[in-house]
């Protein structure tokens, strides 16, 4: 059976949007998948909008340009407003619950809010919020192995941040745990 996952990650610049998508793409390469990663961002370095499309497939990818997504990881309200309607029916919309004040009301997709910013603050490193979200996503859509993500981080993160690899692994595991807890409650 062919496996294909078309994901959009969107939020403000500085939230780790592009690095989340790039890390997932590198992990896909490590796991032997065909990948595509296409970033899009405004001229602002931080605070402007940013998004990226990451596609993982067991077969060749015909085009990196898509308008509908299997999944979305949304980190701010403007991105929720822009991308919620572009998730395919039956798809997944995972959002950062502390930054989204008006989540989508769609009933034909799986909607899950994750308090990733709160958890990253609790761990005293706001920069791992994106890895908490990635861990949550991978719990719901295990398109790559966690070990592949950790290996990918060695490529994505500058070497001066490699001392944070273990913290990033913990963030991935925390994201998975948050989903498990939400599924028990739901």
Brief account:
The protein is 39% helix and 25% strand. With 186 residues, the chain is α/β, with parallel strands linked by helices. Helix 1 (17-30) packs across helix 5, helix 4 (129-140) crosses helix 6 and helix 5 (146-156) packs across helix 6.
Task: Give a written overview of the molecule.
The chain has a 6-stranded mixed β-sheet with strand order 2-3-1-4-5-6, with helices on both faces. α2 (77-83) links the parallel β4 and β5. α3 packs across α4 and α5 (146-156) packs across α6 (165-185). The chain is an alpha/beta fold and 186 residues long. It has a single domain (4-185), classed as Pyruvate-ferredoxin oxidoreductase, PFOR, domain III (Pyruvate-ferredoxin Oxidoreductase, domain 3). 39% of the residues lie in helices and 25% in strands.
Radius of gyration: 15 Å
- What is the strand arrangement across the widest sheet? 2-3-1-4-5-6
> What CATH architecture label applies?
3-Layer(aba) Sandwich
Poorly predicted segments? none
Please name the CATH topology. Answer: Pyruvate-ferredoxin Oxidoreductase, domain 3
- The number of E-state strands comes to 6
Q: Which sequence of SSEs, written as H and E, runs from N to C?
A: EHEEEHEEHHHH
How many separate helices?
Answer: 6
The helix content, as a percent range, equals 25-40%
Question: In percent terms, what proportion of residues is strand?
Answer: 25-35%
Described by the principal axes of the CA atoms, the overall outline is globular
Query: Gap between N and C termini, in Å?
Result: 30 Å
Overall pLDDT level: 93
For the biggest sheet, the summary is:
6 strands, mixed
Q: Number of domains in the coordinates?
A: 1
CATH superfamily: Pyruvate-ferredoxin oxidoreductase, PFOR, domain III
Structural class: alpha/beta
Q: CATH class, anyone?
A: Alpha Beta
